[in-house]
Amino acid sequence: MVKEIYIAGEWRLGRGDKIQSVFPADQSVNAEISTASLDDVNEAVEKADLAWRQSSWRNSMPHERARILYKVADIIEARVDELSRLQTRDNGKPLAETRALTLSAAATARYVAAACETLNDELTTQRAPDFMTMSVHEPVGVVAAITPWNSPIASEVQKLAPALAGGNAVILKPAEVTSLIALELAKIFEEAGLPKGLLSVLVGRGSVIGDAIVKHPLVRKISFTGGTSTGRHLAHIAADKLITTSLELGGKSPTIVMQDADIELAAKGVAYGIFSSAGQACIAGSRLFVHHSIYDQFLNRLVEITKGLRVGHPETAGMHLGSLINPKHLASVDAYVQLAKKEGGQVLVGGEALTEGDLAKGSFYLPTIITGLNNSAQTCQEEIFGPVLVVMKYDDEADLIAQANDSCFGLAAGIWTENYRKAWQLARALEVGTVWINTYKKFSISAPFGGFKESGIGREKGRLGILAYMQQKSIYMGLSEQPNPWCD
Ligand code: NAP
Predict the structure, then answer these.
(1) Where in this chain does the record put each Aldehyde dehydrogenase domain (predicted)?
(2) What domains are defined for the chain?
């Protein structure tokens, strides 16, 4: 049976083409899904605008909006096993990872609900006896939320929760290859009591349906997570429409292992930082700088750990890496490894796809470590988005900082050292939005997240994350018998 999509609070077949949702690990078909047509986009946006203007949502009490988000969190948590399995079927990540993503989505909804309830506006009056001023935040209207395939449930709730908490309506366009979880989220928001019309989930190709959504005149904000070139394209559209964007984009994050690092912890942390999610993470620590005095010892241990990682069926317990999203992406990852060899790199471990037995049906790639390149190599400058780590040696700290910052990206960085003074200085010198010291890929919903340079604009998460979906209004209230000079 062809799956329906969620258009303005109605479940029905989209009027676009049908697509297949495929399990990346063996190419079996999960479902056939109808996609939205351009007419569906127009209808969803127009009805979202109407629902936003006419329903009491935007003027509802914060605790009323929060109540729905708390329910969403409870439902996600109660269905964690089923949602994790669905996410794994959608994008091929190991179950342990999709379970963590699902629980983080529930935690996000709960945190945003609490932030919504406790958010205050400000009395901004200084010493003005004849008038009082107040600064209030108001919703922007219809928000376009566009998400990638690598961590759908987490990135989708990270947009839906603050946008709805801010009193807006949302049109969500998930990546076409991972639409199942977004459709499930629509059911969850519906069950939690979100008024009809405020949410649509439109499945379809980004360049057609995504483009039509963001260009629609009634869409007043774009919240996008995905690649830098798509982000740049959307920023142009936003500039033409004079609307705001939040862009969470790509990365090529450096990790630094200093001479006094705990080698065992650092080697395990570095392996986790690049190879978890099979490297399909914006924050993957894909460039590694190791101090020359510990280089050989560290590298030997890292290679040993990497050889011990289990690559396999994502539904089998204990796998470290599952399948890449699809054969096209596998070919792109492998092409980067071949390019690295042409650039003079040596592959110490990995460097090939798994093509034997059952795994041949999926897109499994071995965790790969490359040495012998310098930071200006194309392999060190472009985002591979796969399990490929390039390791470089450093000596001088000023040069290290210059090389680590020599990237168009600025999303994240890792530092491994026992010297906290040095760690602090380095953390401040790196041009990135997030720095992990003696850990990696840890997340707190209360810490704002986003990129420097071409890794993005704006921040998600944090107690004030809702404000990214609101606009500020100043209100002046005259208190004097003679409010203006000409009144006497
Ligand atoms: P992508 O190709 O940019 O696609 C992301 C989303 O944008 C998908 O839903 C896609 O739709 C849609 N899209 C594509 N072209 C569009 C257009 N012209 N107008 C409107 N929407 C359009 O990125 P991806 O390959 O899915 O994801 C990987 C990238 O995301 C990597 O660069 C990664 O670093 C980045 N990422 C960043 C973060 C962060 O927080 N900074 C987090 C996760 C991922 P379809 O795919 O359905 O066509």
Answers:
(1) 11-475
(2) 2-249+455-474 (3.40.605.10), 254-437 (3.40.309.10)
